Structure prediction request, 568 residues.
Amino acid sequence: MAQFKRIAVVGAGLIGGSILLAAARKGLAGSLACWSRSEKSRATLRDFGVAEVFDDAATCVRGADLVIVTTPVDTAAETFLAITPGLSPGAIVTDAGSVKAAILLAARHLPATNPFIGSHPMAGGEKAGAAHAAANLFEGRVCFLTPTGAEDPKALAAVRLFWQELGSVLHETDAAQHDEIVAAISHVPHAAASALMLAVMDQPGFRRFAAGAGLRDSTRVAAGEESLWVGIMLANPRHTVAGLLAVERRAAELRTAIEANDVPTLRRLLAEARIARQSLDRSE
Amino acid sequence: MAQFKRIAVVGAGLIGGSILLAAARKGLAGSLACWSRSEKSRATLRDFGVAEVFDDAATCVRGADLVIVTTPVDTAAETFLAITPGLSPGAIVTDAGSVKAAILLAARHLPATNPFIGSHPMAGGEKAGAAHAAANLFEGRVCFLTPTGAEDPKALAAVRLFWQELGSVLHETDAAQHDEIVAAISHVPHAAASALMLAVMDQPGFRRFAAGAGLRDSTRVAAGEESLWVGIMLANPRHTVAGLLAVERRAAELRTAIEANDVPTLRRLLAEARIARQSLDRSE
Prediction:
């Protein structure tokens, strides 16, 4: 028997589209519904043929017992307000946003009868949009849940089971801790990759023909849509700013060692970075 | 008929080992010779079964009409001195170093009867050593040649043909211009990736389990051996320092925009970085 009667995905881009495809393949709901602001995305979603596609968010969530909000993080509050008129009493609401403290605040706009559990599947990519959706997007990927401790345990258990069915590896923590973690491993690397790309394109020696895998990989995430990332960085400013400042200081340390022809310091810094980077692969 | 009677590769790690495998496969020489400082590398090279392996650099180059020096850039001068007693008159010498102006200076140690042509195949990787060598390493990759204009045209033509036979896409420029280009597209990205890795590992929120493809790709090159990269950066200090300073300034611009909650500036910077990064893929 399907876990849910009806799942509604509100704002179906890469993440939302992938949730629909995965939920359909796994048979997680009696029926699926989705909404997107853009006619182009709605057409893509219709082509998937797995969910009823709506152009009104409140209508989309009507009759759903699980609602997943996958709109950009800076529109979370307005999306919660938009779906409120259509929410069934008791319907569980979750999301997929890259920040959690700000979304937990925005979720206060939801009716008290609708439990909200913050989710963050770490499965984004620089290619946004439902056109890049894939049913296996969540397989083996970390998904954070940020319960407050005040929610209905049955709602929490249902959201846990949902992401596990999609293949996610769950990690539960509080919203503040979540935001600190993702700043370090996602938001700061994204901003640093953008800074590197901007710096490289300004160099008089920059030639596209010579760009190899090193530059391409180092800057890959900078190809991400700014329409998503402005909202993410501004919703997690403190830790992102601290991390960027650390990048500036570490770059200055390396630069100073090169300027001073300081072999031992340069060797030590590069060795520390190498060892740290190699340890990332060992944790796979 | 093979292009060369005998090719000697001096200092056979990833690049040197790959040259040997490729030259053997393509039949570019009547015989192949190689030297490595380390017994472990010599054992790997013997396992390849394509070249005579020497533990003395001067003996290795004896009788060769093409000698390729693939030792780390900071040992180029000592390697040129070490091979001099064994060089046949007229034997062409080239290299594979990531900097060219400093190596051109070091090549003045070679006998006047041995033409030197600077080469830089852009085919390194964070996995060094002959154990990672591959015959197809140079296929479709840019290889810089930095002739001075003063060399024997036949020697230059022979070196061109050699790299083309290995599948390289040649690009000729002078040593100073080469160094400026590779700073922008390789040395600065490497240093920036190291700075990012150092900054991330210092963040209180850093958790290895949560590190995804974004962090891994952004820092991949930082896993490179510092024993190679200290020499490279210190042999190309001016452009690497200028690029790192630009990284620091661009990171500070992004940070300041986040601190000030300045949506238009943050959006503009991330959009410029995205467009520049996307243009790298279009140039493939």
Q: What stands out?
A: DSSP finds eleven helices and nine strands in chain B. The two ends of chain B are 34 Å apart (CA to CA). Chain B touches chain A through 96 residues (CB under 8 Å). Residues 177-282 of chain B form a domain with the 6-phosphogluconate dehydrogenase C-terminal fold fold (CATH 1.10.3660.10).
